[in-house]
Amino acid sequence: MKRIVIFASGSGSNAENIISFFREKPEVTVAAVLTNKQTATVLDRCERLNVPAFYFNKTAFRDSDTVVRLLKGLQTDLIVLAGFLWKIPSNLIEAFPNKIINIHPALLPKYGGKGMYGDRVHQAVKENKESETGITVHYVNENYDEGAIIFQAKTDVTPSDDANSIAQKVHQLEYEHFPKVIEKLLS
Questions:
Q1: Of the N and C termini of the chain, which has fewer Cβ atoms inside 10 Å?
Q2: Which GO biological process entries does UniProt record here (predicted)?
């Protein structure tokens, strides 16, 4: 059985979608969800879905091997960043080479990098009058949003779209494709 650990910083809608997808697949399990926010709504979702969840602070994440040891103890095959906003430290990348993936709410290399997440990305897409946007699933390396691209999916952006409607279109792509990309990587 393959074991996924999801990292999330916010509401956890993508985490819940991934957990629900793999509930129907006995060959893959979501072993745990980790978060860097004690008040993240993802913790409530995990409680409701009966998935173990752990909180960690900056010291445990950046200045020690606490998180690496936890992940190894969970026998993690793949780390999935689903709305996780902190940069991944080098000790974690080294411990799990090509085993950490992220989803970004734009077609990288456009609209990536430090500070480009969520509504900031959708607003930039609107302001720059893009005709399309989408999602990028990529491997995580030492730089924000610069790891090798695994998968992209596109959606049209119309002149009448605002940041909220763009976000809704992008979320639909995330929900549709992210679990399938994870499944393919694990097979």
A1: C
A2: 'de novo' IMP biosynthetic process
- The Cα angle at residue 165 between residues 161 and 168, in degrees rounded to 5: 150
* Residues forming beta bridges with residue 104, ordered by sequence position: 136
* Rg of the chain on CA atoms, in Å: 16
Q: Has 171 been annotated as catalytic?
A: no
Can you give the residue ranges of every domain in the chain?
1-97, 103-177
Closest of 59, 95, 64, 76 to residue 7, by C-alpha: 76
- The CATH architecture of the domain made up of 103-177 is 3-Layer(aba) Sandwich (3.40)
Measured between alpha carbons, how far is 155 from 164 in angstroms, rounded to an integer? 14
Fill in the DSSP letter of residue 169: H
Report the C-alpha gap between 101 and 145 in whole angstroms. Answer: 10
* Predicted pLDDT at 114: 92
